Amino acid sequence: MGIFGRKKKNNASSAGRGIVLIREVPDAMRGEKKLGKVGFYTRLVAPPPEFREGCDLAIEIDIMEMPAIERKLGEEGIPFMKIIPLGNESTEPVDIVNVVRYADSVMVKAGNMKMTFDHSSGLILNVSGGGCPDVPYLYAIYVGENLQKARKPRDIGFTLCALMLDRAFEECLKIYAG
Amino acid sequence: MLLIAGTVPDKDIGLAFGEARLKNGILDVSGVEISRTQGTAAMISAAAVTLDYLGIKTPPCAAIAGDIGNGTGSRKLYKYLISELPGIEPDVLALHYLMPIIPQMVKLVDCAEKMSKKPTLIADAGSMYAVKAAGLSKKFALMTPDRGEMSFLADPEATHPAYIRHHLMGNDGRGVPELINDLYQNGSAPDTLMVKGSTDYIANKGRIVETVSKPDVPEMEAIGGTGDTHNRHMSSLFF
């Protein structure tokens, strides 16, 4: 069977899938191999026509694992253009951020995730929302940490919830810096 | 039996199944001790307290596995439930923090559907995302989204709340009642929806049957674990 039909784990439909757009075919093949080796769902596919930017090969992934996959590709030095969900009209993660100010603290909501910090000390008071398994893990890491000393959620988390938390975190940093 | 299944944020915890009991403020699931304040552990603890308050002697059962977000524990849990659910025979199965792995959720729900006495199914958190993305919401008795998650449920294409179409994000003047209506019209709603917010909306089979606006404490939104706890009160009442 040709590489476009090769599946690693199952025959699920495109629901919940995404693709990594990669310009060079050898990079795509190397990326698929590296990701598959550490247990990610992967499949080499042709990118949808509207996303062909000179590339003709992409890696199908589980979109929920986007930050972990970005991180792994970065660690392996595999260049990629973009990661997009399959079957969605929206190809960009939600970018609407809402800010709620309480007496002593500020809550920033990005998509389904929320981060709250003490506006005088910068101490992170809460992480909530979301539903992926890294949310309680990130809560345990961040609560009690100082915003300016904490690592980025996208460097620690694995899922789209972590990606949304990263957006909230960046906004918290901006607000705290004034 | 009320069975609660979900992950806990400790990679060193393997799969554990058994009765869940609170001992001196620590949650014990078949000899595995976990903090009760967040996520799946908060919901199991709330269920244990609620069942006790209701005078139900049987504690909840829990199936847990350690998972820090890479899906390892979630995969173990899906596999275990798909294999063992018919033997466990729960009356209510409440699914919580799980990696939304859609093919696995399809298999799990199919397994529940084939049981001689199908358990009442409840989903929240990542499980709710997987159920929605797999188009299985109608097979569930209860979901408890917040306003943002309602936008996700009402978006027929979205497979995760990170990819909701912008016009559903609440900036078009559409409120929760309209989103609830959309969801039932799409045929993609569970029997009962409880939408959490400054006003809570309870809808059953397409109709809003109750709203709760007081007390309204805005700070509650910035306290993690409140939704987890609330969902488990509801699961216990279903049981």
What features would you describe in this structure?
The complex is a heterodimer of chains A (178) and B (239). Chain A contains 5 helices and 8 strands. With 178 residues, chain A is of the alpha+beta class. In chain A, the strands form 2 sheets. Chain A has a 4-stranded antiparallel beta sheet, with helices on one face. Chain A has a 4-stranded antiparallel beta sheet with strand order 5-6-7-8. Chain B has 239 residues and is α/β, with parallel strands linked by helices. Chain B has a single domain, classed as UDP-N-acetylmuramoyl-L-alanine:D-glutamate ligase (3-Layer(aba) Sandwich). In chain B, 36% of the residues lie in helices and 23% in strands. An 11-stranded mixed beta sheet of chain B has the order 4-3-2-5-1-6-7-8-9-10-11, sandwiched between helices. In chain B, a hairpin with a 2-residue loop joins strand 3 (26-29) and strand 4 (32-35). In chain B, helix 1 (39-53) packs across helix 7 (226-238), helix 2 (72-88) packs parallel to helix 3 (102-113) and helix 5 (147-154) runs parallel beside helix 6. Chain B is globular. The model of chain B has no long low-confidence stretch (mean pLDDT 89). The chains are: A alpha+beta (178), B alpha/beta (239). The interface between A and B is large, with 54 and 56 residues.
